[in-house]
Specification:
about 35% strand, mainly beta, about 0% helix, 5 strands, three-stranded antiparallel beta sheet
């Protein structure tokens, strides 16, 4: 006999996409606010990653900043 539900039937939980995926955030030197660099990395690979000095245009002050690995804060990626 088929089971009847008076509400939506239970669903399987969706698998988490990008588990362990982190966004690279850098603090703006002018405003001290975190800015997304537009790059992501798996968290377990971060300690061994080699990153050269890179530039980005800050969304907060509009200036161009140079960042290195020491400046990065790992955060949740934007979905």
């Amino acid at each position: 006999m088929a089971t009847r539900f008076l509400f939506d039937p239970p669903r399987r939980p969706k698998p988490k996409i990008g588990t362990g995926l982190k966004s690279l955030l850098v603090r703006c030197p002018s405003t001290s606010r975190l800015t997304d660099t537009g790059r992501t990395i798996k968290e377990k690979l971060w300690p061994t990653a080699k990153v050269k000095a890179q530039k980005f245009t800050c969304a907060h002050c509009g200036g161009v900043h140079i960042w290195t690995k020491e400046d990065v804060v790992l955060g949740r990626p934007l979905q």
